C-alpha cells in the first residue's frame, strides 16, 4: 500500500497535532508581520544637514543677486563664501562674505554668533546667519546685521560648477575697496597661473594670480607695491590675498564665467567676475 498523504488517512490524534502545528506557525508569521519582520522603519528621525556647492538667489526688490559657495565640511563645519551683487551685470559691486557654517540636522545650519565677516564697499563688518531646509539642491537663509538688526532673507537654489580649462583671457570687473574696475583682462595658462593681467586700480600690473585644484579652486594673488595702491604702498612689502574661485555658465550665451574672492586674514579683499 502506498504512503497516505490525505487527512482522512491520519489517526484523530495525529490530525490534531498537525492542525496545532499549522495554527502555531500561522500565529508566529502574523506576529512577525505586525512587527515589520524584525526590522525598523521609524519616522521622525534626524539626518545630518548636507550643504555644499554653488547656490544662487535673487534678493529683495530689483536686480540683486546673492551667490554662495559652500566648501566640503570638516568636523561639522563648512567654509562659506558669499558675493552679494547689487545687480547681475559684470559691473556690479559685490559685498564679500566669508566665514564658517556649523551644520546641524534636518536642514539646519548657522554661524557661531556674528562670526560672518562682510566687506562692504571698503568697510569691514560682521553678520550672523541662520539656514533652514538646506540640501544639496537649495537652502533658505536669513543673514542678520547684529548692530542694526536688519536682515536679508533669501531662497537659494544649487547651480552647476563647470570643470573646464582655465586657459585663455577672462574679461571682467574687479571690485576693490568700493571701487568698480571694469574691462579688465586676466590671461591664465593651462595650470591656472596668470601670464599677464591688467592693473587693479592704482596697483601696478605686475601682480600674480594662481588658481589650483579642479572645479573649486584655491586662489591666491600677490599685489606688488605702487603709488596709491589700496593694498600695498610704493616700496612696501607685497600683499597676498587668499580665497577661492569657480567657473559656471555665464548668462551671456556661449560664455563661461569665472568668480573669484580674495581676502586678507581680517576678511577685507577684492573680487573678480569675468567671462571667457
Short description:
With 276 residues, this protein is mainly β. It has 1 helix and 17 strands.
Q: What would you note in describing this structure?
A:
By secondary structure, this protein is mostly beta strands. The chain is built from 1 helix and 17 strands. The chain has one helix at residues 12-34; strands at residues 53-58, 65-70, 77-85, 95-103, 109-110, 116-120, 123-132, 138-144, 151-159, 168-176, 179-188, 194-197, 208-214, 216-223, 239-249, 256-263, 269-275. Strands 1, 2, 3, 4, 5, 6, 7, 8 and 9 form a 9-stranded antiparallel β-sheet that branches. A hairpin with a 1-residue loop joins strand 13 (208-214) and strand 14. The model is unreliable at 1-16 and 22-43 (pLDDT under 50).
- Would you tell me the structural class of the helices and strands? mainly beta
The oligomeric state of the chains shown is: single chain
- Backbone shape: globular
- Measured between the Cα atoms of the first and last residue, the distance is 94 Å
Low-pLDDT residue intervals, each spanning 5 or more residues: 1-16, 22-43
How large a portion of the residues is in β-strands, by DSSP E? over 45%
What's the helix-strand series?
A: HEEEEEEEEEEEEEEEEE
Number of DSSP helices? 1
User: What is the helix fraction of residues, given as a range?
Assistant: under 10%
For the sheet with most strands, the description reads:
9 strands, antiparallel
Question: How many beta strands in the DSSP annotation?
Answer: 17
Query: What is the radius of gyration computed over CA atoms, rounded to a whole number of angstroms?
Result: 30 Å
Mean pLDDT: 83
